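pinging the channel bc i need a second pair of eyes. not urgent but kinda urgent?? the chain im working w is below, pasted from the shared doc
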Amino acid sequence: MYNLVSFSGIFILMFFAWSLSSDRKVVNWRVIIGGCALQLVFALFIFIVPAGADAFQFINDMLVKVIAVASTGTKFLFGRLALPPGSTDEWGGESLGFIFAFQALPTIIFFASLMSILYYIGIMPRLIKLFSKVFTRLMKVSGAESLCASSNIFVGIESATTIRPYLQKMTRSELCTVLTAGMATIASSVLAIYIMILQKQFPGIAGHLVSASFLSAPAAIIMSKLLLPETGKPETLGVDVEPYYERESSFIEASINGANAGLKLVGGIIALLVAFLGIVALADYMAMGIGQRINEFAGISIDWSLKGLMGYVFYPFTLIIGVPPSDAFEISKIIGERVIVTETKSYMDLAILIDNGTLQNPRSAFLATYALCGFAHIASLAIFVGGIAALVPERTSDLSAVGPRALLAATLACLMTACVAGTFFGGGSILLG
């Protein structure tokens, strides 16, 4: 029954996006039909077809092993602080438990360096161009926005540089799609963080995060085009474009530049978490203080924390994606929390819910994993708008104008991805393995 609810949720979410469209008379049916077909076929292959299940398991196991290898440098620098919970080092020293700063964040530097190397040897450009061709031909969108959306499957804000020559002449609808694709997906450099947070509770998390990023790319295009449909004439409509990037002169330079970029990203994440978690805690303190007096005066019981208030907002959407009512409010709170304090904190809270046995149905954790897999939060909106505006300052006003709509589209795209995954939920097999 809940699989049917998730399947229905795909169309309910699209209808909701269309109802808020800037021009409801303009609907690109190729985007809707092609994008939905692409998602459903991919999910069917991964979750139902035996060969797809084997590929899923291979990707999951490979990522887990890569992360284990990636911790070599971290252990050398930080010793026992870098040991995962329950492990020991070669001298018999035991782990001090999970320490986010010393175990999760340093892996970003490794993955950023690895991705830079994959760019240098030509693997990433070929993969990106392959997905771009599929999006362009199947969904009838411009080659530039297809290229950017496919880049976001693997990387983050730097994906905008792959279409740098086209940014200046892009339509507002294209710019909205570029922003949406960036916020609806996750970068490979931060993938390791979420795997480390949830691997104990959810052994198959690595494969699910990869499949979520693949599913979210077409979902982002669909939601973006429903909320801000194309009314202009894109320069690269139906045309395949080549990824633009500056290739390093050597393998070593690529590795060094990638590591330095990863270090900057780590610094940004640290600053973001310190600032936002502190600000949210202060806002929570004030809201709950005022809310407690309102509750006493009115004789009601409402959760006035920001997390609780966002939970009320996202509660109907949580039911729409197929989360059982028994767990819906808890899941809606962490989905809503993501909008304010980033998906990292939400994944941490999901791990706590699973550890404490709060969730009554394994389906709830599964759907939350997909719904949270994206940079759809206020901080990312500022990062993506600011980052792309730095490349094309003359489009700053357009980027700022379409930014809020792109954030809404990205949030709906993540929920749509959860719906697609929920349609094929099996309760056992690889879905929870």
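so The chain has a mean pLDDT of 86. and The two ends are 22 Å apart (CA to CA). — does that match what u expected or am i reading it wrong
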